[in-house]
Specification:
The structure holds two protein chains of two kinds. By secondary structure, chain A is mainly beta. In chain A, 0% of the residues lie in helices and 55% in strands. At the A-B interface, strand 5 and strand 9 of A face strand 5, helix 1 and strand 10 of B.
Chain lengths: 112, 115
């Protein structure tokens, strides 16, 4: 069965530091991959997605993710964290049944 | 574009009562999804529709849960009778084209509390 694994349920960084949120997927077919962000008391918003083409994908709010087929990874990064980045982040992969398979989420805390 | 609209935003009900959650997808979107989110279980897919037809309802917890999509612009998720363990945030999402390629747009959710 397809699965998405997010390493670390909580990540804490200092303001201005690098943000790295890890995501690995299992898929026997070329994957479609997504990152979503959820701010408190809100729904999930699409940050970025990989379908085909360039393996480095740029999203909103300065985030980017790199698709690495050899590592079955799609890690999310941002060079410099801002307080407003504090939220929960979900990695997802396009499932064989047509829906998205979500990881369990990583809560990002940003310390001043 | 008004986005995916869910109502109500908050619902508090007593155990045993019927609860109906509502969703209006984005116009032109032909897929609609219902998810439940809890601290313990994370995001769970309950059911999804394509062109108003239920495609996969294997995530519906039990017979107390039912979902309908009478037309392309409206869907309901009903719980009857409700139980305290149903307390969660329920999200509706919609998509155009193959969701595994295009992704979803989520609504703001309905926070359900059953006391």
């Amino acid at each position: 069965a397809q699965s998405v694994t997010q390493l670390g349920s909580h990540v804490s960084v200092s303001e201005g530091a690098l943000v790295l949120l890890r995501c690995n997927y299992s898929s026997s077919v070329p994957p479609y991959l997504f990152w979503y962000v959820q701010y408190p008391n809100q729904g999930l918003q699409l940050l970025l997605k990989y379908t085909t083409g360039a393996t480095l994908v740029k999203g909103i709010n300065g985030f980017e993710a790199e698709f690495k087929k050899s590592e079955t990874s799609f890690h999310l990064t941002k060079p410099s964290a801002h307080m407003s980045d504090a939220a929960e982040y979900f990695c997802a992969a396009g499932g064989s049944q047509g829906n998205l398979i979500f990881g369990k989420g990583t809560k990002l805390s940003v310390k001043p | 574009d008004a986005g995916v609209i869910q109502s109500p935003r908050h619902e508090v009900t007593e155990m045993g009562q019927e609860v109906t959650l509502r969703c209006k997808p984005i116009s032109g979107h032909d897929y609609l999804f219902w998810y439940r989110q809890t601290m313990m279980r994370g995001l769970e897919l309950l059911i999804y529709f394509n062109n108003n037809v239920p495609i996969d309802d294997s995530g519906m917890p039990e017979d107390r849960f039912s979902a309908k999509m009478p037309n392309a612009s409206f869907s309901t998720l009903k719980i009857q009778p409700s139980e305290p363990r149903d307390s969660a945030v329920y999200f509706c999402a919609s998509s155009t084209g193959p969701p595994r390629v295009s992704g979803y747009t989520f609504g703001s959710g309905t926070r359900l509390t059953v006391v």
